Amino acid sequence: MDLQASPSTKNYAANKGVDLEALARSTGRTTLGREDVDAHLGGHTPAPAAATASPDQTRYWDVDHAAHGPVTEEPLSRMAKVAAANLSAAGALIPQVTHHDRADVTAIEALRKTWKSEARARDIKLTALAFHVMALARCLREVPRFNASLTPDGETLVLKDYVHIGIAVDTPNGLMVPVIRDADQKGLWALSAEIADLAARAQARKIGPDEMGGASMSISNLGGIGGTAFTPIVNPPELAILGITRTETVTVWDGDTPRPVPMVPLDLSYDHRVINGADAARFLARYARLIADPSHLLL
Hints:
Elements: H1 7-16, H2 20-27, H3 34-41, H4 55-58, H5 78-93, E1 96-104, H6 106-114, H7 116-122, H8 128-142, E2 148-150, E3 157-159, E4 165-167, E5 169-171, E6 174-176, E7 179-180, H9 188-203, E8 217-221, E9 240-244, E10 248-254, E11 257-271, H10 277-292, H11 295-298
Parallel strand pairs: 4-8, 8-9
Antiparallel strand pairs: 1-11, 2-3, 4-7, 5-6, 9-11, 10-11
Helix pairs in contact: 8-9, 8-10
């Protein structure tokens, strides 16, 4: 089994006398965190990494596709296999709901235009994603229930006194989610530089295991590709994930006067065991207000 665990998790397990390889085999998980070690020590069995299909189900998938026409086979990469197992587990075990909203990005686009020369002088590409990271970090501090994880036994909520934000990066070898540590303590320029660095190193497969775990919440940004909405899958042990798609021009009415406004679609998927619909709606509404008026982020 190809075990994935951060150095801090390995050290924690070693100090507790827990064999991570044995724990992975017993639970069927390929990715382990400190919470899995704690669950093992507490006598609880972590949830399996993927749902197990019955023989009656799998027989419908075990098809000789070549009998119907020419085919080729392409083995999944190790990274893709790990992602597949984790996403299968998330889909099977988490009652997930997605809340949709949108935010006015007029002010953000104006600031990016105003600061274009400064960004060039700093050799930094100032993207809208840096503003999104700042807004999400602020919301996670304001609403601690989103900055939490549920223990594997489903009985305890672990509230985090840090804000680490994962950034999903599409690479030729599969999806990677490097993490920005202490995002709430970093300014716009620092976040912009770190986002660019993590994305470049993810593409080059130069991200270390200790840079990919422990996120409070993640962002999946498809704005550079397209789309109007999607349903991002919550990545356990996180409780929510924010999806972003391509900015579109929406007509907003000021009385009888129409006004074109650039709006970014937002998709917030969340674990309904912990977060209710009203909580998600308020969280995303607050987020949208911060995006619409980023001056509150920059103070």
